[in-house]
């Protein structure tokens, strides 16, 4: 499978949907990925099993504020500098790149870097959706170290972080990103193809592409189509009647209220926001929580809506998608369950089916 100029836009759409309202606007990433593919060629998407078991995989993406990243012009050299830093640290060649987060802009930047480097991209990622912290990766659950974490601004400045643990790596990496102006490119959880086959969330690139291609073919009924494609369910269709945001501790927090219209008239859904949409409630009852994916789509064109772009009066459909299976385990819920985000509620599955 290839990512090329014919399907990169559909892939970006799928990444935005899997972001659960977060992950950063993929718009600038799409422009850069499309430009890189046009200049350097398409990107081959490969399964971990297609590589030598000892081949080195470099998970990579944006670290820091997605909002700041939208205002920055990326040079495209970040990937080359990360590869050089990883190879210098490990004394092994990087065989393939991997998105550490399939969502939003972090699904697109590794495509640009892979194209520029002439390297394949693994059909896998570390989150299967968007999460805000570096230890919220499937590789962490599998016992793989985030360190050494390599950071660059693409201008020749590189920081190597060797942390005692993955939570320490998160704290230190964030501090380093601040010295780069609030955002930078990073590579972490470097591992072999053998480890990636067991630790990473497989099939996430092809999943994002499949979702995006299906959605672009529709002319109406996008929430229902998304639910059908992902074994999810439509929670509500209606209008945003209330929204509240506040910023603190590195997160954008708040809530939104959607009043049902049409067949959903008389219903009211409350969405708890913390960069992503994390909890959906109706009449005080929790309908679905993180790590399941709560996606918001505009009813006008089916495009996903990020939490930062949600506004009063917007007509949206809210869809619950099953989260990756690794996060639905007891160990996974300790890392990305609702209590890890400060919500004193148990995990509630939005759908009964498995992620697929």
TrEMBL record:
Q: Which superkingdom does the taxonomy of this entry point to?
A: Bacteria
What protein name is recorded for this chain?
DUF917 domain-containing protein
List the lineage, top down: Bacteria, Bacillati, Actinomycetota, Actinomycetes, Kitasatosporales
Task: Supply the source organism for this entry.
Answer: Streptomyces thermocarboxydovorans
Domain annotation S-Me-THD N-terminal: ranges? 7-162
S-Me-THD-like C-terminal domain mapped to chain residues: 166-348
Q: Which InterPro entries match?
A: S-Me-THD-like_C (IPR048350), S-Me-THD_C_sf (IPR024071), S-Me-THD_N (IPR010318), S-Me-THD_N_sf (IPR027479)
């Amino acid at each position: 499978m290839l990512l090329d100029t014919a399907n990169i836009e559909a892939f970006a759409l799928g990444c935005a949907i899997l972001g659960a309202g977060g992950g950063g606007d993929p718009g600038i990433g799409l422009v850069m990925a499309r430009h890189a593919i046009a200049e350097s060629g398409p990107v081959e998407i490969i399964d971990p099993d297609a590589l030598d078991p000892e081949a080195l995989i470099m998970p990579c993406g944006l670290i820091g504020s997605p909002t700041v990243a939208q205002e920055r012009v990326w040079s495209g050299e970040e990937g080359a500098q990360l590869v050089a830093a990883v190879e210098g640290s490990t004394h092994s060649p990087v065989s393939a790149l991997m998105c550490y987060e399939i969502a939003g802009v972090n699904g697109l930047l590794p495509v640009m870097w892979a194209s520029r480097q002439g390297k394949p991209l693994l059909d896998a990622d570390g989150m299967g959706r968007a999460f805000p912290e570096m230890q919220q990766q499937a590789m962490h659950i599998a016992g793989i170290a985030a360190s050494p974490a390599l950071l660059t601004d693409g201008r020749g400045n590189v920081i190597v972080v060797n942390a005692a643990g993955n939570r320490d790596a998160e704290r230190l990496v964030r501090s380093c990103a601040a010295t780069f102006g609030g955002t930078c490119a990073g590579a972490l959880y470097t591992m072999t193809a053998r480890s990636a086959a067991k630790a990473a969330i497989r099939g996430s690139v092809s999943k994002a592409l499949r979702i995006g291609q299906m959605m672009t073919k529709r002319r109406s009924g996008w929430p229902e189509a998304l639910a059908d494609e992902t074994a999810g369910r439509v929670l509500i269709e209606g209008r945003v009647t209330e929204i509240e945001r506040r910023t603190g501790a590195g997160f954008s927090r708040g809530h939104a209220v959607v009043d049902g219209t049409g067949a959903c008239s008389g219903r009211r859904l409350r969405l708890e926001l913390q960069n992503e949409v994390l909890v959906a409630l109706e009449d005080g009852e929790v309908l679905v929580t993180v790590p399941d994916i709560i996606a918001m789509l505009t009813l006008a064109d089916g495009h996903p809506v990020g939490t930062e772009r949600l506004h009063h009066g917007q007509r949206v459909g809210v869809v619950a998608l099953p989260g990756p299976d690794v996060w639905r385990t007891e160990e996974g819920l300790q890392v990305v369950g609702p209590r890890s985000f400060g919500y004193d509620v148990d995990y509630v599955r939005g759908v009964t089916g498995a992620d697929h």
